[in-house]
């Protein structure tokens, strides 16, 4: 079972490296729309899902993904539970 990811400045710093460089992030303007980042903690983006082009997910290389035993990835699209 994944552990809950704390919404802290440290988590955001790590997330910026991975979501920040992910090809699905900036091209879809996810940084400009709530909750901006840390989707594994905050849940999916408020961007309309029909307007999001899936260009892959960098969560699998992220230390938070490993530390909290997360599953699925694409938390910006599928929410905290990730892609099934
Ligand atoms: S697992 Fe993904 S959403 Fe969560 S902090 Fe890492 S890059 Fe961001
Ligand atoms: S949650 Fe995954 S797919 Fe979404 S922006 Fe972050 S790294 Fe990319």
Description:
This protein is mainly alpha-helical. The chain has one domain (9-78). It is 27% helix and 0% strand. It has helices at 9-18, 39-42, 63-67, 75-78. The model has no long low-confidence stretch (mean pLDDT 97). One iron/sulfur cluster (SF4) binds at residues 14-15, 18-19, 38-40, 59, 62, 64-65, 70, 75.
Short structural description:
Helices cover 27% and strands 0% of the residues. The chain has 84 residues and is an all-alpha fold.
Ligands bound here? iron/sulfur cluster
Q: Helical element count?
A: 4
Q: What share of the residues lie within helices?
A: 25-40%
Q: Are there runs of 5+ residues with pLDDT below 50, and where?
A: none
N→C terminal distance: 14 Å
* Main sheet properties: none
Domain count, please report it. 1
- Main structural class: mainly alpha
Secondary-structure element series: HHHH
Mean pLDDT: 97
Q: How many DSSP E strands?
A: 0
Topology overview:
Elements: H1 9-18, H2 39-42, H3 63-67, H4 75-78
One iron/sulfur cluster binds next to α1, α2 and α3.
Q: Which key phrases capture this entry?
A:
84 residues, mainly alpha, 0% strand
